[in-house]
Amino acid sequence: MLRQVTLDDIRPIGIGAGILGTGGGGNPYLGGLHLASIIRERGPQAIIDPFDLADDALCCVVGSIGAPTVSIEKLPEGTEMCRALRLLEAHIGRRFDAVAIAEIGGANSMQPLIGGLQAGIPTVDSDSMGRAYPEIQMSTFLFDTSATAASLAMVDAADNAAVVPAAVSDVWAEKIARNIAVSMGARAGLAGTIMSGAQVKAAGVHYTLSLAHHLGAQVIEAQAQKSDVPVVVAEALDGQVIFRGKIADVERRTTKGFARGGVRIDSFSGGDRLAIEFQNEFLIAYLNGEVAATTPDLICIVTEEEGEPVTTEVLRYGTRVAVITVPAPPQLKSEAALEVVGPGAFGYDVEFRPLPGGVIGLRPQG
Prior knowledge:
CV3147-like; nine-stranded mixed β-sheet
């Protein structure tokens, strides 16, 4: 597993997290530029194995909240993660020992590295989703532990800041935070979900930062070898390439702090069609009108030749892509988890049929 993140690690992490992010998590290229500037200033960021955390260590997650479509137009000030972390520390009257990753998706895989580096504390090689999701309560840290989403702290690129000391439920914490994020221009830094080291160890999807790096490195190697990169990605994640074609239509809108819409992909022969719907992340795929895959399993879009991730904010007509389905980590497939991240949680009246296999969160990588 990774023990530190250097400048050389940014590109493979960005590629791997962009793929694992299922379309969401923020633009990995922009996130990589931000992380590179901080590493040049402060040096590498230390990564800690989740099982090396003391049981009584104090941790939280940090990341950006808002719409990915906004993230490519409204650049950060640069210290939002650290300022949100410090604001939450001031609220609880105690310093954090480490930061965990809210979601191993796109730029949000890098925000805990940036925040941890600026705050002088390590980043845990563990996240709460094994992919990306649009809402705070969709977190393995909240499914089976006593941790709660609030207290949480939020800041924007200006001097606006807010603390939500409590909420009646994690869903209400999401509603309150989302409204604040919209008021902040649909992009803000957030620190929340305060946990002990024991809770991180018990509930996290572990080694996903290392997995992202390992996956990205395989993509880079496959590109150099002129291999079939989408197949390499699928094999690395125990998934399968289910479709190849050209983007024929994109419907996308930014509303209530989310990027919502759908994309239609036509096969190169023109005989088949894959339609995917998203709310920040790709949630459900229909092949010729029949359900092909649903959340929590991962639906990933990559460029057809290079295997680079295609996130929701950069979907474009005419792009040649491959679509890969990947088994979700086991923590997302429990009965309790499916109530929060299954198809029904997003309004789809379909049964979740899990893909067989899976590697996410099961062992160290790299």
